[in-house]
Amino acid sequence: MNNFQDVWTNIVNLIADVKDVAVDELSAETMLRTLELDSLDYVEMMVTIKRNYGITLEAELFINNPDITLGELCQHICE
After folding, report:
1. Which pTM was predicted?
2. In 3-state terms, what secondary structure has residue 31?
3. Alpha carbons 26 and 52: distance in angstroms, whole number
4. Domains of the chain listed by start with CATH number
5. Is-contact 69 32, C-beta < 8 A?
6. Which of 6, 60, 70, 78 has the most CB atoms around its CB within 10 Å?
7. How far is CA 62 from CA 10, 22, 32, 55, in A?
């Protein structure tokens, strides 16, 4: 099981870098769809998660949950 705070920090920093936003602009309630991530952003995020946590996220997670929040994504990674 992964530590939520570690996962949160990693994911938020990745998204902040990719989308050129400040980390403090992101919250657990931020929906991924509001960040206007493109397919390459999602792939980069999935590769980073696989590399750092050994977890494979399928594209269907994002397709079937268009309103998934950053907090929910991090919780999913921790489970």
Report:
1. 0.90
2. strand
3. 21
4. 4-78 (1.10.1200.10)
5. yes
6. 70
7. 18, 23, 9, 15
